Amino acid sequence: MKGQRLAPWLLMTPALAIAILFFGVPTLVMLRMSFNLHPDGRLYVPGFTLENYTSLVSDEMFLTALWTTVKLALMSSVFTVVIGYFFALLVWLKPARWRMLFIALAVCPLLISEISVIFGWWMFFPKNGLLSYALVSSGLLSDKISLMYTEFAAFVGLVYLSLPFCFFILLSIFDGIDRRLLESSADLGAAPLRTAYEVLLPLTRAGVLVAFAQSFIWTIGSYATPSALGPDTLWTIGYLIQEQMLGKHNWPKAAAFSMVVAAGVAVVMMLIRRLMVQKGAFHT
Amino acid sequence: MTLATSIQEKQPARRLRRGDLDRRLLRLLGAAFTVVLVLYIAVPILVTAVMSFNDATVIRFPIHAWSVRWYDDFLGSPQWVDALKNSFVIAIGTTAISTTSGVLAAWAFERYTFPGKNLLYLMIMMPLFMPGVVLGLGVAMAFGGISIGGTGIYGSRGLVMLAHSLWAMPLVFMLMEATLRTLDMRIVEASHDLGGGPVRTFFEIVLPSVSTGLISSALFAFVISLNEFVMALFLTTRDTQTLPVLMWLSLRSAGTPRLAVAAVILASVVFLSLLVIMGWYVSRLRKMRPQ
Asked: Which of A32, A164, B221, B290 pairs with A180 at a CA distance of 20 to 30 A?
């Protein structure tokens, strides 16, 4: 039937139109823009130069930013996965009546805007913030302290924002495991830690990978949290893109930065997909 | 248990005590972990809620006097109320656009076979994984100079809705694809056999059967758009600024308790819509019970 063949395409038209017009076309525009020239005082001049890319390799500032971003993303993703793993494990092991409560707890940060979370920590860490007040008034410290504008503050904010996604990915993996496996492992004489290492970990490896990738990608692209909570010297790539675009009005360079990030995200996604296929654990 | 008992019998004292200690230690660790986690998640929320009732003009702990003056201040400021309105309008628009397009595409993927399915799936899902900075920049560059009928589309609410749909639409698509997979295809065949055309079947059989998934994914789209501010930062002007964008800009200049009020109001809109949806869901369950 002719109608049958046409129907899926008609149904997909709106979704594809959005993806192509507002993601595909802009990506091509950015790709083209990244080869344009940027003489002083103008946003861009059409031309063809590789300078925006070659300058990235020689640009000390960009390389530092890249290193900072990757380091921060790796560190916070590892932490997010570890915390998320224990959180999911706990919810999985707890009796059902606790489950909804914990899930509601995990959903909370998801429903709150990133800006509100930033602002919340922004009131917690500084000298006149809650942390300092709590520590001084409880007698633990004699002087006010400020953890604001440190890498630690940025790290706390980033983990907070990516934790819920990680938790739900891992919980869905745990839910697919037969809990009786733990009992049989214990019955066979394995201590809890050995059970965790030899039974649980291998079964959840794919989920850990996905959760890590998700968290890593999210952190790589983040700009608001590290720039609002972290030190002035913490230049993530997201921050540099924003600065080139809105601050320095250097469109070609902002586009080149973006293309690097987009390529990085695509590579990480493909790597993970390949790993999953090899493990044969991910199949939809 | 028989194997365990036999092992314990062979090496009674040591094995038993160690296992017991392990278990007690683990339980203690679990409890400590839970407390820290609950505190961690609660801190920024509670700090904000408390600060919104502060009477002072600076953000400072301890709080000496309480009042709702910053709520009055927020509601009396046209700039902030307009931002809230913009956020709401844009979120509603994003929900409409992304739910419609996402559901239709999910139905196409579930019901039909066609060439290039994997590639198309990737095309639809890809924007969801792209950072907001990249998406916002791309849309701003591609549509910054284009105008329709003399008015530029840059800075319009419509453009922000479509940009937000880049995240909301794949999400709806993904959720609805999973939901539609649980649908019993026999009722669709039955509808066809009874003479229902594909369009009528879709609206009268398919959609009502997956209404819970549909409403949840629409809610997700709404919340994403309401809270998003990096794309909106690139795409809005002073007139179309959303509340999170205004919050971000004013955080960069100086933080006042007004920001805490804005955060509380933003979160209230989200939780209220969640409550409405849950109320709808409960009443639906109740209606279904007598049958």
From this structure: A164
Same domain, B45 and B153: no
Contact B105 A254 (CB under 8 A): no
- The confidence band for B24, taking pLDDT boundaries of 50, 70 and 90, is confident
pTM: 0.88
Distance (Å, whole) CA B152 – CA A67: 39
10 Å CB burial of residue A81 (0-12, 13-18, 19+) is buried
**What is the pLDDT averaged over residues B34-53?**
93
Phi first, then psi, for residue B210 (nearest 5°) are -115, 25
Which value does ipTM take for this structure?
Answer: 0.87
Cβ-defined contact of A86 to B33 (cutoff 8 Å): yes
CB A161 within 8 A of CB A115: no
Q: Into how many domains does chain B fold?
A: 2
Per-residue confidence (pLDDT) for residue B64, from 0 to 100: 85
B173 chain-A contacts, CB cut-off 8 A? 15
pLDDT at A282: 40
Burial class (CB within 10 angstroms; exposed 0-12, middle 13-18, buried 19+) of B226: buried
- B91 and B46 share one domain: no
- Chain B residues with CB-CB distance to A25 below 8 A: 142
Are B114 and B228 part of one and the same domain?
Answer: yes
Out of A111, A113, A261, whose CB is closest to B131? A261
Domain boundaries, position B34: 13-51
| Model pLDDT, residue B231 | 93
Instruction: Select from 1.10.3720.10, 1.10.10.10, 3.40.50.720, 1.10.443.10 the CATH code of A43-279.
Output: 1.10.3720.10
Instruction: Give the pLDDT of residue A280.
Output: 46
Q: What is the pLDDT of residues A190-240, one digit of tens each?
A: 777 777 777 888 888 888 988 898 898 888 888 889 989 988 877 788 888
CATH number at residue B146: 1.10.3720.10
Helix, strand, coil percentages, rounded to 5, for chain B: 80, 5, 20
**How close B89 gets to chain A, by Cα (Å)?**
17
Q: Are residues B129 and B214 in the same domain?
A: yes
Nearest of A143, A175, A151, A177 to residue A75 by alpha carbon? A151
- Among the ranges given (A70-84, B106-120, B142-156), the one the predictor scored with the smallest mean pLDDT: B142-156
